[in-house]
Design goal:
six-stranded parallel sheet; Rossmann fold; about 180 residues; about 20% strand; about 35% helix
């Protein structure tokens, strides 16, 4: 993300990056990042949406975990895509609630044993790229961390795409194979 911003010569002072609570949400600790609570009342979404509406010249990005953005804040995710608000969303997907110990969430592959599904997750996971595309996102992509150049290029595209752009970034390549 830092490299994408530098390559694009974006002005940090004209950027806002928000994230929720969790390991991924705290990944980008810059002086221009704002950590807000899980997407319930003062969501990264609502915070980001409010900031964008208040100052349309800001480049606004949300960077957070799958549990934060797709589960607790899932409603905000689809409606932000539906409204086509000019935001970039980097969803870091480790297929569980990581910070609280690895509980099942909506991206956990079927059959996975987690802290809260000892006998295996009985449910199918969301395909988030298709979900946000169906809801109205103008750009959606997903990559594994084993594809750093593609992630960089995709982040640049997302940051320069007008409208709702979402990039799903997996932390674990193995899970990509499992999900597919
Ligand atoms: C309103 C609220 N609900 C629940 C929690 C507990 N909580 C803290 S981190 C977390 C999991 C976050 O998971 P994810 O967004 O996937 O991020 P990860 O840690 O896996 O990167 C939860 C449920 C909280 N801090 N605040």
């Amino acid at each position: 993300m830092l490299r994408a911003v530098v390559d694009l010569k974006l002005d940090w002072k004209n950027m806002l990056i928000t994230g929720g609570i969790g390991c991924a949400g705290s990944a980008l600790a810059t002086s221009y990042q704002v950590d807000v609570i899980h997407p319930r009342m003062v969501a990264p979404w609502r915070f980001a949406t409010g900031a964008k509406l208040f100052n349309p010249n800001l480049t606004v990005a949300v960077m957070s975990g799958d549990g934060d953005l797709a589960d607790i804040g899932g409603n905000h995710l689809i409606h932000a895509a539906r409204r086509n608000i000019d935001l970039t969303v980097i969803l870091v997907n480790n297929m569980c609630y990581g910070m609280t110990g690895g509980q099942v969430c909506s991206t956990t592959p079927k059959g996975s044993k987690t802290m809260t599904t000892r006998s295996g997750n009985p449910y199918n996971p969301f395909d988030l790229t298709r979900l946000v595309t169906a809801a109205g996102a103008v750009y959606a992509a997903r990559y594994s961390v084993a594809q750093p150049i593609s992630i960089l290029n995709s982040m640049k595209k997302a940051l320069t795409t007008e409208g709702f752009a979402s990039l799903k970034c997996f932390r674990c390549a193995l899970f990509i194979w499992q999900e597919k």
